[in-house]
Amino acid sequence: MIDFYYWPTPNGHKVSLFLEETGLDYTLRPVDIGKGEQFRPEYLAISPNNKIPAIVDHAPTDGGDPVPLFESGAILLYLADKTGRFLDSDPRVRMLTFEWLFWQMAGLGPMSGQYGHFNVYAPEKIPYAIERYTNETHRLLRVLDTQLKGRDYLAGDDYSIADMAAYPWIGVYDSAPIDMTPYQEVQRWHASIAARPATQRAYALAKQVNPDAGKPISDEERKILFGQR
To answer: How far apart are CA 80 and CA 153, in angstroms?
Structure first.
């Protein structure tokens, strides 16, 4: 029913978390971003920003033509609407979920990504950039920790697409780990999601499509991932 264009990155994990939680029928379509497969014309027709993830829903609820979608947040919203899962119908809870989904998309993801780039992937160490993005990542973790006090999940008692969006961006970089000791609520929340069977199935996809995940990238991969104009 759904073609799922995936590579094991935090944004790719968001959609695999949803698909595994709901049991939607999908076909995994690996897109090896280290080899530049995201720039192939047939993929750009689906994801014009040459990023993963993307989906094509061959059985949309309106019964019409297949629906292609890129951008992980948009995909989560679409799938939540399609299934009626992980997005509460109560307007207040719904808006809270939107807030934290967009917070992740605009803040936690981009800032954590820059933290990783300058600490792990950059060919030279730039102290200002490292300090800037380390500080901002810690600030966002404090925001997340505060929101989780007194709540099981970001929007309240129930697991939602906001949690699926934020979860993969915690503890991403093994070679540049962030000290999580100050963030007890984040640790509790993260552990509860990690223990879900669907989470374990979703993350198992990483080794299935990329057994070399976590190894240092080559100069050629670096050029493809970070040298495009």
So the answer is: 17
Name the residue range of residue 178's domain.
91-195
How does pLDDT run across 128-185, given as a tens digit for each residue? 999 999 999 999 999 999 999 999 999 999 999 999 999 999 999 998 999 999 999 9
Give the CATH number for residue 159.
1.20.1050.10
CB atoms within 10 A of CB 221: 16
Residues 140 and 222 occupy one common structural domain: no
Query: Strand, helix or coil at 6?
Result: strand
Going from the C-alpha of 91 to that of each of 101, 138, 163, 225, 229, the distances in angstroms are 15, 31, 18, 40, 42
Rounded Cα distance, 151 and 154, in Å: 7
Q: Given strand 67-70, what is the order of strands in its sheet? A: 26-30, 2-6, 54-57, 67-70
Give 21-67 pLDDT, tens digit per residue: 999 999 999 999 999 999 999 999 999 999 999 999 999 999 999 99
State whether 111 and 47 are in the same domain: no
8 and 69 assigned to the same domain: yes
